[in-house]
Every structure is written in structure tokens, then in C-alpha cells.
Amino acid sequence: MHNLLSSLRIDINSSLYLKDPESSSLGINIVKSSIDLIDLYGIEEFNFKKLAKAIGSTESSIYRYFENKHRLLLYISSLYWGIVEFQTVVQTNNMPDGMEKLMKAVETLFSTPQTKCTSFEIEGQKLRHILNSEFVKAYHHKLVDEENEAGYFSIYKRLASRLSEMIVGVNPRYMYSNSLASLIMEGSLNQYFLSEHFHNLTDCHSKDNLYEFYKDLLTKTLTS
Amino acid sequence: MHNLLSSLRIDINSSLYLKDPESSSLGINIVKSSIDLIDLYGIEEFNFKKLAKAIGSTESSIYRYFENKHRLLLYISSLYWGIVEFQTVVQTNNMPDGMEKLMKAVETLFSTPQTKCTSFEIEGQKLRHILNSEFVKAYHHKLVDEENEAGYFSIYKRLASRLSEMIVGVNPRYMYSNSLASLIMEGSLNQYFLSEHFHNLTDCHSKDNLYEFYKDLLTKTLTS
DNA sequence: TTTAAAATGATAGTATTACTATTAACTTTG
DNA sequence: CAAAGTTAATAGTAATACTATCATTTTAAA
């Protein structure tokens, strides 16, 4: 068996970009640098002018890769969820015990993404930080239904579906596996945001704490 | 005891507006109509030009009430959470049983807000719908720390704190009451959004369903 | 190695947005 | 009735989010 990690490529919906950013060094720079800048400015204050300046290129060149910054954010989001999905699958593969498997998946969800499996040299922490702050804006959007139809959220939904299946694996009689899966995924971003900006709204100020909170919640919900 | 409802006024942080919209019919129209338009267009496509046109006034007049549309959204959000907090307090008042009290609060959280207790004739459903879609953008914002410092989220945080206390009332040994309270409040908006736009990501497609999901979650988490 | 094709850069321009400023008209209150 | 306060009308500005065009550079195929 050859090295799965090195030959793997996260398959991002091609209608998210005009030209595949992985196909050129400019494209790679666009994605890499956009992550720095979105993290720095937030998506509202981020624009292609700033990005062009940062990579020593021009706006028009960037527009050849991405239609607009919203699509770029969706691309970055897919990249994140793709990494998380990949890690989840690898880490939980062949685990016989359902509960152990689910817990491993949850732990992965709350961990820093391993960006090595991409063409981009990205800091995992930065990528996660963007998702914590900006992902909700990627889907709380007027065009969400069209974009969903176009498959822009398919990786996210697939991961939710995997989690849901794991939940059913633990307790086949549990009636809210989809809602619970979404709740955990949403929480994996939001609880970090709360910890950073609304300290008193959460009791979890570390990855371990958070993991314990959800572990407790899931164990009790699914086994009692 | 005089009528609490009729004399009550939801106390919204006065630095959210330049001139109190409740102080004039123009102000009331601004808030009323903005709810219609934000619901229709979403906050990104909504602007003061459209709002001015809708109420037969001018942009400059609106700018005398609100510094910008973001502040207006924060105002509307405070109004929503103020109503929910009020209802929660009224409904759970003097309930001796902790669990019953918490469940009542959760039920209120998932209900349509009673807008009668405001100066504005607003459709509760519309107000809730805006919150479902737009509230996350009100606080996932680059200036969130300053705005939080300025007290723009104090009603939201106070309600979270009340819920947290109720949770502790049910189980004083439970260690994550704040996180759990936030999780429920967040869920009270997000799960509706999922039901509308990502049908497969949730199992709850009615208020009752949703309420049952959280009731189950809370009962098991706090009593086992 | 030439040549065509593709990618990128440079520059310019447009429509819209999010305001600010000024002055005039109207309304309310003392 | 006069003064003060409120609103309307109009104009203007800086920034944003693009689009278009054409020149130049890079790459890849013959």
C-alpha cells in the first residue's frame, strides 16, 4: 500500500473557483496570504486590493482565480472541513467500539487541523481561527439555498452525516442524531469564539475542557 | 400591584442609537420597516437608501437615529433578547421546581417572541427569522471586543447568565453550566436556520420537535 | 528554437455603498 | 408669535467591488 497521505488531495468543488489555485504558485499564494489577511482584518475589512498588495500581484489577477471574496471564503472553509474530515476518517478507521469511535471523532473536531496534507503551507491555528470567526458568515447568506444546491457545502454536510452515523452506531434508538451532529460541529467553532470574546459565556477555555464538556454531554445523552 | 406589562419598557443600551427611535413616529417607522427589509434582503443587501425609500423619508434622517446598519442590527437584536428575557422571567417566576423552571425557560426560548410589550408593532415571526439568519453576524465582528465592552450584548449575556443559574439550580455539581446555557441559546437560533436551509442537518422541523430535542439533552445531561 | 497559447501585469473605468455636509422647510413648545 | 428642534432635499466624497482592455512575460508544443 502506497502512502495515502502524500497522494491524497482534498477535493474541493470546482465551481468555487474560476481557476484552480493549486495549479500555480500565484494561486497558492492567493490562498495562503488570504488566510493571513482574513485572520488579521476579518472578512468585512478584507478585500482583493489588500490581498494583491500583500502578494505583490494585482486585483485583476486574483479575480482570475476567484469570483469574489465570498467564494474565496467558501473555498477556505471547504479546505478546513476537508482536512477535518480526512483526519476524522483516518483516526477512527477500524475502531470497533462505537463510543470510542465517536469520542475520537469529537476530539479530532476540536483539534488543530493538520494542514500538511494540502498544497498550501498554512498555519493550522490560523485556519481554525478564521473558521471560528468567519464560517457562520459563509452560510448565513442570502444565497445559501443556491449555493447549497451547487454543492458548496457538501464536505461540511458529509462530515455531519458521518458524525450522525457514528451517533446512531452508539445508540440506534436515539432520534436526533442529525441535530446532535450539527450541534457538535457548530459548537466546535462557536465555543472557541466564546472563550476568546465572551469569556463568561463558557466554562471551557482549553481544547481539553471543551472536549470533556462534549464528551460528558454525548455520553449521558446517548447511554442513559 | 399595577400592570407590569404595560409599564415595562425594554431597556436597550442608549449608545446603540443617536436618537431614541421610540421617541418619535419616524424612529418607530425606521425600526419597524428595517425589520421587514432585513428579513427580505438580508443584512448585506439591506441599506439605508432602501429603508429611506420604504418609509418615505431620507437617508440623512435615518442617520440621525442610527450611526450605521450594524448598530441598527444590534438594536434589533437587543430588542429580541429583551423580549425573550422578559418572557422567560415572567413565565418562570415563582416556579419552585428547578427542572420545571429550566424546561419552561427553554420552551420560551424556542417560541415566537411576544412583541406586544414594545412600542413597535412587529411580527414576532419576522423578528425571530431575522435573528436566526443575522444575529451571528452581529457578534462575529471585528469590533466585538469593544462593542462587548460598551455593553451592546449585555441583555444577551444576562439571559445566558439566568439560564446558567437555572442549570445550576437543577444540578449544582454540573461543571459546564455557562457553556450549556450558550449552547442552548445558540441552538435556539441555529437549529431553525438548519431546518430552513440545511434540512438534512437536523431532525427537528417544528418548535415542538426542537423543544423535545433539547429537553432530552438537558434531562439526561443534568440528571444522570 | 521557434511559435503559439496561456498566464499575469498594468492601467483605466463604472456602479454602488456608506457615509458627511449644508441649507431649507416644517413642527412643536413656551 | 418666536425660537428651538426636527426632518427633508440635495449634493458631494471616499472606498469598494468589480469589469475591460491591452501589453508583457512565461510555458509548452512543434
UniProtKB/TrEMBL annotation, chains A, B:
Classification via InterPro entries: Homeodomain-like_sf (IPR009057), HTH_TetR (IPR001647)
Superkingdom per UniProt: Bacteria
DNA-binding region of this protein: 47-66
GO molecular function: DNA binding
Protein keywords: DNA-binding
Keyword flag DNA-binding: yes
Chain ranges of the HTH tetR-type domain: 24-84
Protein name listed in UniProt: Transcriptional regulator, TetR family
Source organism: Psychroflexus sediminis
Lineage: Bacteria, Pseudomonadati, Bacteroidota, Flavobacteriia, Flavobacteriales
